[in-house]
Write a structure and sequence with these properties.
single chain; about 80 residues; mainly beta; 5 strands; about 25% strand; binds FE2/S2 (inorganic) cluster; FeS-contain_CDGSH-typ; Iron-binding zinc finger CDGSH type domain-containing protein
Length: about 80
């Protein structure tokens, strides 16, 4: 049965890997991880926290390079 947000973690839950979604940014996963990209590449990350790009602007996609922070210029004439 899936846990609801109001439930306290059990001992079993303490061993689960945490995945966090951020507003307008990456999905954060506690590492290390082995990621299979959509094109089949296997990417091993040893970081304690791995950021997966959700905006598709990253130069190192599928990993986040913080490109999501850059705002697009707004043309005042349009
Ligand atoms: S979410 Fe960070 S670059 Fe895409």
């Amino acid at each position: 049965m899936p846990a609801t947000p109001d439930e306290s973690p059990t001992t079993e839950d303490a061993t689960r890997r945490r995945v966090s979604m951020t507003a307008g940014g990456p999905i954060l996963i506690e590492g290390p991880i082995r990621l299979t990209a959509a094109d089949g590449r296997e990417i091993c990350c040893d970081r304690f926290l791995v950021a997966i790009c959700t905006c598709h602007r990253s130069g190192i996609y599928p990993l986040c390079d913080t490109s999501h922070r850059r705002r697009r210029r707004v043309d005042p004439d349009s």
